[in-house]
Design a protein that fits this description.
GO molecular function: secondary active p-aminobenzoyl-glutamate transmembrane transporter activity
Number of strands: 0
Number of domains: 1
Strand content: under 5%
Order of helices and strands: HHHHHHHHHHHHHHHHHHHHHHH
Pfam families: ABG_transport
GO biological process, one term: p-aminobenzoyl-glutamate transmembrane transport
Number of helices: 23
Distance between the termini: 52 Å
Protein name: Aminobenzoyl-glutamate transporter
Keywords: Membrane, Transmembrane, Transmembrane helix
Structural class: mainly alpha
């Protein structure tokens, strides 16, 4: 290694160490969400009397900031607190999925599967395989957050590598690479619906294919895997060498021999799971299947898509139970219930954080401050009248910034699409390219914002191995991914555009403005 390279690595390490040190001096994440909610209340009071010219594209009226400190607002806050908490979408996803995963984990089914997999996976290919699986998990909505990320930590630990590096790689694939996937998912038609309605502002009756970005997101999968592989193995894991593993790892699998009884139990349990998947596919096959919505399985309203989390529960609970009773780790049904109870016990800290996170996100949405931030930023970009290529990069950067505060991909695009899509159509840029630029920015900063609903959950995963893991630790780990994705993916999009490679089905780059 040259002296210049060593010096550059030292600068990066000191920078990340500073971020980690400063970040970990912040209060507990639950308190941060509480303080952030109080700040939102105060800002809503300060700006509630201000008249803004920004037009909310969802209503056609000027943006109005709602004062959350009025008597009616506070009364509504108190009366709706329980509903706000229990209706917090990530909470149900995590708890229901973890009930099934808990049975599969404590029975030994997952541990045996990991041991068998590690025997067949070359150590050098572990990282790209983890990121690949993380990217594919997007197809099952939020499954990656509750399955792939924690399992990546277990796999790395069993392989003798630092578990936090595995968690970071999986988090980068699940969340940072959210818009990279070669398998179409429900997010494609969801974004397309906003893109199409926005395009029709300029050209009435214009149609946008739901898979208008499919070729680009497929190619992006390989790009994100390679980039994430390099960052994990060359930057993140070397930096973690001095981080001591001091968490509760007694129940984690060791990389040892799998007994014949464990193998038989695993194969029988897996066969049961496969039979279940075949039955599900058979039930979903016909056009009149009750699992479809208007003939589609991938539509967000389709019962199949709405059933992803319960299906995750069943697809882990059933084989976990079968494995446990065959292998002898479960003697009675109470052993299975105890496994589910242990899984819930591990989620106690996350439930506390989720309570305050739910209240903050609800307040932020009700105040309209997020909508104001997104629309004003888009108007500034529009007023700058930059060249088309620079404007595309501007969309990526603005989206990445707004994403630090407004996490939902569809909610942001509902606000930004009616501004960006018509604006760029008048510059001769197609809605397909505008949507692709948005997706790059939306993904890149997911992994560095504590306001992302699943961010606290990833902190909990890390604390299983390193007890004093805090927000700063996770941000410092994920920042190299975020910067590399933002810069590299933007350049990848420009190169894709420059070469004229199709973005997706019936997609184009230009528009006769």
């Amino acid at each position: 290694m040259s002296e210049e390279t060593s010096s550059a690595n030292g600068v990066v390490a000191r920078f990340l160490n500073t971020i980690e040190r400063v970040g970990n001096k912040l209060p507990d994440p639950a308190i941060i969400f509480l303080v952030a909610m109080l700040i939102i209340w105060l800002l809503s009071w300060l700006f509630s009397g201000v008249n803004f010219s920004a037009i909310d594209p969802r209503t056609g009226d000027p943006i109005v900031i709602k004062n959350l400190l009025t008597g009616d607002s506070l009364a509504s806050f108190l009366s709706g607190m329980v509903k706000t908490f229990t209706g917090f979408a990530p909470l149900g996803v995590v708890l229901v999925a973890m009930l099934g995963v808990g049975v599969a984990e404590h029975s030994g089914y997952i541990n045996t599967g990991i041991k068998l997999m590690l025997k067949r996976t070359p150590k050098m290919l572990l990282t790209p395989m983890i990121i690949l699986v993380a990217i594919v998990s997007h197809t099952a909505t939020d499954a990656g957050y509750v399955l792939v990320i924690p399992l990546a930590g277990v796999i790395y630990y069993a392989m003798g590598r630092h578990p936090l590096a595995g968690i970071a790689a999986a988090f980068a694939g699940v969340s940072g690479g959210f818009s990279a996937n070669f398998i179409p998912s429900g997010i494609d038609p969801l974004l397309q619906s906003f893109t199409q309605s926005s395009a029709q502002i300029i050209q009435e009756g214009m149609q946008v294919n739901p898979l208008n970005n499919w070729f680009f997101t497929s190619a992006s999968s390989l790009f994100i895997i390679l980039l994430g592989w390099y960052i994990t193995d060359k930057i993140i894991e070397p930096r973690l060498q001095k981080t001591k593993i001091d968490g509760d790892t007694d129940d984690l699998p060791e990389f040892d021999t799998v007994s014949s009884k464990e193998k038989v139990s695993f194969y029988v349990a897996t066969l049961v799971m496969v039979i279940g998947l075949v039955l599900l596919a058979w039930a979903s096959w016909g056009e009149d299947s009750p699992m479809r919505h208007d003939g589609s399985l991938t539509n967000f309203s389709a019962p199949l898509m709405q059933s992803i989390v319960p299906l995750i529960f069943l697809l882990f609970w059933i084989p976990g139970a079968v494995y446990g009773f065959i292998a002898g780790t479960f003697k009675t049904s109470k052993d299975m219930i105890d496994a589910m109870s242990k899984a819930m016990g591990g989620m106690a800290y996350y439930i506390v954080m989720a309570f305050f996170c739910a209240l903050f996100i609800a307040a932020f949405a009700q105040s309209n401050l997020g909508a104001l931030l997104a629309i004003e930023g888009a108007q500034v970009l529009k007023a700058m009248a930059l060249p088309s290529g620079v404007t595309v990069i501007g969309i990526v950067l603005l989206t990445a910034f707004v994403n630090l505060f407004v996490g939902s991909a569809s909610a942001k695009w509902a606000l930004l699409a009616p501004i960006f899509v018509p604006m760029l159509m008048q510059l001769g840029i197609s809605p397909d390219l505008t949507q692709a630029a948005y997706r790059v920015g939306d993904s890149s900063s997911n992994i560095i914002t504590p306001l992302m609903p699943y961010f606290p959950l990833v902190v909990v995963y890390c604390q299983k191995y390193v007890k004093d893991t805090g927000i700063g630790t996770l941000i410092a780990m994920m920042l190299p991914f975020s910067i590399a994705f933002l810069v590299g993916w933007s350049l990848f999009l420009l190169a894709y555009w420059g070469l004229g490679i199709p973005l997706g089905l019936q997609a184009s780059y230009g528009f006769p403005g």
